[in-house]
Specification:
215 residues, 13% helix, single chain, mainly beta, Porin
Amino acid sequence: MSITRTAGLLLAAASLLGAQPARAQKATPSASEQVIEPEVARREVRLPRLPSKDFSVSAFLGTYSAQNFGASVVYGLRLGYFLTEDFFTEATYGSTEVSDEDFRQILPGGIFPQPKETLSYYNLSLGYNLLPGEVFFGSSVAKASAVYLIAGIGSTRFLEQRPQTLNVGFGMRLLFSDRFAVQVDVRDHLFSLDLLGRRESTQNLELTFGATYYF
């Protein structure tokens, strides 16, 4: 075999070996290239219209401690509206009977025209859910809860007087379902009264338990 023919065969083999990677690289698809084109027909989904449950109505019962006149049973209604998940407004009406029995043992005729007089109030308050969380019953049951702060302004009606009233306090709400909850409230009603010819500022603590329905 001649040297020229041997050199030609070597050059041909080298060219074949150099061309194989290029052809293999050309046949392999790139990673970003999609091999299968899916043909899925998208369907329109109609979202359900769920009730917002932004409103609430509740009835409450508890004790109202009128300054200088002791504690008595108080009851009333509350209507609330949730502005956001954290802030809510609440309109409240409450009523109780205040007695001056202790004063009648010292002063002839007492202070009130009657031994018991009705005290009623209404106010509009703004609340803030300070500590939302959960309350666990055992190891497998948990219910949503919230500790909140609340303050507002309103009016008190007592002995033909209607002093402006400021209320401040806090409470805890426990939701047993999307629509029902129970709550405990502690509030201080601050207003001034003129009973013995002198106007005096009073603080009147209230502790109530309520049942709430959301709609």
